[in-house]
Amino acid sequence: ELQSWTKDKITVLSPIFCCKNEDSIPEQIILGSYPSLDEEEALKILDSSINAYNNGNGAWPSMKVEDRIKCVEKFVYLMQDNKDEIVNLLMWEIAKSHIDSEKEFDRTVKYIIDTIDALKTLDRNSSKFLKEESIIAQIRRSPLGIVLCMGPFNYPLNETFTTLIPALIMGNVVIFKPPKHGILLFRPLLKAFKEAFPPGVINTLYGRGRTVASALMATGKINCLAFIGTSKAADSLQKTHPMPHRLRMILGLEAKNPAIVLSHADITVAVKECLLGALSFNGQRCTALKILFVHSEIVNDFLKKLSDEIEKLKINSPFEDDVFITPMPTEDRVKYFLELIEDAKMFGAKVINKFGGSYNKTYFYPTILYPVNKKARIYHEEQFGPIIPVVPFSDIDEPLKYITESNYGQQASIFGSDPDEMAKIIDALVNQVCRVNLNSQCQRGPDIFPFTGRKDSAVGTLSVSDALRSFSIRTLVAAKSSDLNKH
Ligand code: G3H
Predict the structure, then answer these.
(1) Distance between CA atoms of 479 and 135, rounded to whole angstroms?
(2) Which atom of ligand 1 is nearest to the CA of 442?
């Protein structure tokens, strides 16, 4: 109904350029539009959400867990009818390859089903009684209230649902703002939301984040912010809250995950994993490997093999079979990559691979930069794209110092074959990051594993069961034992 409230619309452009006919120049495809709500309209959504939580339609937060589970089961069943359309929209809106778009959809369905299973166990565990000092209390797991969920463009469906579903199933009322790239794919789901859930418990917030999300935060009535995206956007949202220090938040932010390739590493394995880690979905993953420290004894061999592997990658539209590198969301991203490369060159780096640094509109060719100096921007900045900065080292203290001093602390990978040397590095790294990957790339999954980070990388932990805990609070119903005995 909201679409009729507002006069303004925001146009959604695909990252993919097409020619209208044989002689025309390629143009960016217009995919559609969505309403741009103003502050007043956003606040109406908040009011109706508060109403749905406190009294309207009454029942969502106090509904029996089994009944809320039934709603989510119905939703996930209906969602699967829309798979083809959602997968297609993922390809058009964010240029994710067909195979990866399907994986994102299937992983989301599995996440929802696993969440339901985890809740069944969590609920059993939490309906225990406590008895101490003549007080007997039942512990309940209750919702927080109104949760604002915002997911990122690189996993618009999956990472929106990794907070939205657990928040909802725990009895919260959810307002979710889809990312600006990856927004139209929610359209086929609106009908499923409506069919599966009571009115008012799930609300879509359309518009510019700075206007609509900030307006909600400024009221102080959002009980929890679940945000996955850039640290800058999270900071500015948090600052609009009247008491930011009291706000409950689940944040999945930036990272600069390093790989350390030791002299005794299996180079073939290290190259394969570093390539996947750095370039899957064009490097647009918070878990991507964003800087490689390679031992100087093997660095030349490593660079040669990595360049050869890059040449085998297929770069094309997401609709082509076996495509690996696809367009970036905007041409501005490409400009940013070129700036990073120029800057690294000023500090002595060279583009190592054939075609590295080349581009065409939203396409950007994977680029290896070597040797990257600590003064270069890419040594510290999260590139979120297909550039691989490589730093040679001969003393392990250099990569360890990098990780210790970094603003980020999500994950790291180590490649090697000497268990004693690796054990010492693991012991140092587990105090600095939240996952150490041995002879493999960094990654979030499987989704039942805890996923978090230190410093500017995350607040709170996401996993199927951690999310259920994060979006709930333990409340007590307590009585004097003597009174209970009497009645
Ligand atoms: O962008 C951040 C995602 O959490 C990465 O997830 O490792 O499964 O690709 P992934």
Answers:
(1) 6
(2) 7
228 close to ligand 1 (CB < 6 Angstrom): no
* Residues in CB range of 374: below 8 A, 6 or more apart: none
Span 185-198, pLDDT tens digits: 999 999 999 999 99
DSSP labels, 286-335: TTSEEEEEEETTTHHHHHHHHHHHHHT--BS-TTSTT--B---S-HHHHH
Please indicate whether residue 443, judged by its CB atom, sits closer than 6 Å to ligand 1: yes
CA distance from start to end of the chain: 51
Whether the CB-CB separation of 430 and 436 falls below 8 Å is answered with yes
- For residue 390, list its beta bridge partners: 292
DSSP reduced 3-state for 82: coil
Q: What is the dihedral of CA 340, 345, 350, 353, to 10 degrees?
A: 30
Q: Mean pLDDT lowest for which of 48-62, 81-95, 144-158, 178-192? A: 48-62
- Provide the Cα torsion 287, 292, 293, 299; round to 10°: 150
Comparing C-alpha atoms, which of 73, 74, 45 is closest to residue 146?
45
Q: What is the DSSP letter of 181?
A: S
Which uninterrupted H or E stretch holds 195?
Answer: helix 187-196
pTM of the model: 0.95
CA distance 357 to 342: 10
CA–centroid distance, 155 to ligand 1, in Å, is 8
**445 Cβ inside 6 Å of ligand 1:** yes
Q: Cα–Cα distance between 159 and 227 in angstroms, integer?
A: 9
